[in-house]
Fold these 3 entries.
Entry 1:
Amino acid sequence: MNFKEEFIKIYTENITRPGNKELLNWLETTDFFTAPASTKYHCACEGGLVQHSVCVYHTLMDKHFDPTSDSKESFAICALLHDLCKAQFYKISTRNVKNEATGAWEKQPFYSVEDSFPYGHGEKSVFLIERFMRLKTVEAMAIRWHMGGFDDSARAGSFAISVAFEKFPFAVQLHLADLESTYLREKHTSAVREHRGSN
């Protein structure tokens, strides 16, 4: 099973809210399943965005899911869709790179950002999801603030993130799952598979 197939399996088995099918159909019209998760940091490869989304889901479930009190649907929505803002966000460009072996300059592809809808990061994901499917307040808060201190408004000195984290611990859990996935579990392309002991 590849990452797209796993994403769709988790999505369809756990998300049943009205609008879920329309949202998934819309995802298929974008580059969500082929886009990278970043230009050069984590999962900066074709399909990196869906790989990262699946990894965050497993990290969030492994570390924070309590079956007696938590919603599988909320966990799936927030993990799988927190970076929806990155669909239609990257483009493939080329640049000249010197081949050290031959001394010749060669064109090499790389990802660059071309944001056609500059609405922020977490807030853009919330906006795009809610075009199709209503979010609970706790879900919207978790997705909005999943970047933690890396969020532009948090760096600008806003206290909103502290209030959000205090009132909505799930937002902290999603942020931690995103961090662990990015910096620990995604070191190699097959990190998710190796972590879970599958092929």
Note: Residues 57 and 79 are 5 Å apart (CA to CA).
Entry 2:
Amino acid sequence: MSTRTLAVVTAGLSTPSSTRLLADRLAAATVSALRERGEDATIEVVELRTHARDLADHLVTGFANDTLRAAIDTVVGADGLIAVTPVFSASYSGLFKTFVDVLDQDSLTGMPVLMGATAGTARHSLVLEHAMRPLFAHLRTVPVPTGVFAAPEDWAGADGVDPALARRVERAAGELADLVTGRPAQRRPVDPFASVPSFEELLRGG
């Protein structure tokens, strides 16, 4: 059984948050779907709230510190991505967009992506189609057909979730698992400067 790596990016601001709750459900359902397809999986979560200051510094300086670089490498080196944002002003949050902005333009090309969003009202449910899907299309990712949106009423039910939301989660997770298993395993990002000779070695070579 091979092992796939799933990166989970969640942009919730509170602790706990419904955004993280949805991300965790999507991740667990995708792991189960992958196992049904003969694949094991590991989950690596990137909680953007903890990187807010690092992201602001990156925008000003153009450089990622070690902590933010590790988060970026986690995402671009994964076999699949689960991305969940709260809705602010009828779109994805500024924190979520800031993280996307610091990624290299081609770093997510071909990446299978499951999109999710949470909001205080179901009126924002189309954010997945009018905001998130165009964003990930611009990044040349491969979003699954089913996006998963959750409003407060979706967290009601016998096990804490509405059956309709549970069905959407299972369907989207299966779609992501299908894409991930049909794609060669991602290789971890390679440091482009790891094999660069030192200045002293260059002088000796000259």
Note: The longest helix spans residues 18-36.
Entry 3:
Amino acid sequence: MRQLRGQERAITGNRQTSWAFAEAYGVEHIDDTALRWARERAREAGLRSVSSGTGAALRLLAATADAKAVAEIGTGTGVSGIHLLHGMRPDGVLTTVDLEPERQQFARQAFRAAGFAGNRARFIPGRALDVLPRLADGGYDLVFCDADRAECLDYLAESLRLLRPGGLVCFEGVFADGRTVESAVQPTEVLRLRELLRAVRESTVLQPSLLPVGDGLLCAVKRG
């Protein structure tokens, strides 16, 4: 029994080391000056930015989709947007929605500092569920959601309308710091995340995968 416990600790330690390595991998080849600035603005505002591993995954997914049009729900201070823009086509446009215009001003500065032209991003202030219905049906290659978790099921419905066949939808933070899988009573936002995970997995129009990066990145491809 003692030997088994020692093996369990070794496995856990190896997993933690592997997770840390994966989080750090693939970041060095981009200029992170703008990213550091955007992360600092986020910390000052009390916001949590996507992790390095999540950012690398977003770059990969945007590049895999050869994304020309991406919709982002939750601009923050621009950290996720920088990663998405790095993965998109050189002529791609990021449409990013946030309730707080001040955050979008930070993101605008961060994008400029990262070397992206002003016409690479379209900033729309406002509540996501008021803005998204005005965007074009089937006009997007990827939709990234990092906003109010209580509204995640509504974001899913809008994303399915916005995406072209073969497009990707991604939800950040679905682990909710481990609360999604805990048996204790959880707040509404965690219950909504559980419903989201179930809805995506059971959908007949989505091919899903849950990536263990950052705080959990739920991804799904819209079937053609």
Note: The chain is about 45% helix and 20% strand.
